[in-house]
């Protein structure tokens, strides 16, 4: 991927823009960057215009402050979309990227052509999840490398932790490029994000939710409940939270079918 930068609020935002056709914007998750799409992007770019963006404090995009709210991240994404003169986009987000996608869909509804949530949820953090984030912030401040290594491995399904060693190492190395400020600011932003389940019920553009049955982060049964009585399509995979690495081929097929 060839990257370019724009400046938003004195902050450098890093992104790639390749291909022609319907524009699809891919947003990575927490402790990731646009490299996470390295298997999917080359396939999609054959038929679509694919934009991959590094979110605030991740990849080569700088930090904007000490709390990166999902709305602030969505505004940074909007700045890129505006810069590229895109009127309507299909937005796809993995985990935190899904939270940002939902914030974008709420802020700029007229720009959404379709929405894909990959291992993500429209629900706000539970009190338990908020407490976990506070613990994670303390841990990463205390021992940056150990905290990141452990949190990445824990995103894969248990069975894959022994078999996908190369993928886990790669994800850890990518995560270690995330600055401490970016990690803390994202955790603080996810902690205060609002519940956006209403968007799944009230919007009429095509929506897709992709879930891993053994996701250690998102409870599968609870995640399915949020789309009851909606027009959201559901695709389920057999593994954990890192579907783009645990179920590469299936994710590619699902994306293409939806698009």
Automatic annotation (TrEMBL):
InterPro entries: AB_hydrolase_1 (IPR000073), AB_hydrolase_fold (IPR029058), AB_hydrolase_sf (IPR050266). It holds the Pfam family Abhydrolase_1. It comes from the Bacteria. Residues 23-165 form the AB hydrolase-1 domain. PANTHER family: MONOACYLGLYCEROL LIPASE. This is Pimeloyl-ACP methyl ester carboxylesterase. It comes from Flavobacterium haoranii.
